[in-house]
Amino acid sequence: MHRITEFFVGLLFGLGLLLSGMTDPAKVLGFLDLFGIWDPSLAFVMGGAIAVGFFAFALARKRTTNFMGGALHLPKSTQIDKRLLIGGLTFGAGWGLAGFCPGPGIVSMGSGELKAAVFVAAMLLGMVIFEIAERACSSRRMGA
């Protein structure tokens, strides 16, 4: 039952990305082009997502289990550190260069867009490089 629910939640998310235009790199880049022909429409998409997330997290903080009965583990850290800033800057640079972020990139790749497939491959490579670097750093910390 969990896999079926996960499938339908993912399907709903993907459809939302398609309907909102988040899978169209031109629309995303138009939103990021503040000094050219700026397209503010994605600000409404983001505002809607923030509103939904605000109420969803307020409800989640009052619960100990998710709606499927499993344990609910919310992040506890509120610290803004160097890793978070570098990750945010890297994410933003990738979004600005490609016009995709991970979810829309995967949805667009599923529709056969080559640029999205290249983006997803680069994203996966970046994840592998991060894991290798993270393991190297943690082994150095343990050895020091």
UniProtKB/TrEMBL annotation:
The chain crosses the membrane at residues 41-60, 84-108, 114-133. The keyword Transmembrane helix applies. InterPro entries: DUF6691 (IPR046513). Keywords: Membrane, Transmembrane, Transmembrane helix. It comes from the Bacteria. This is YeeE/YedE family protein.
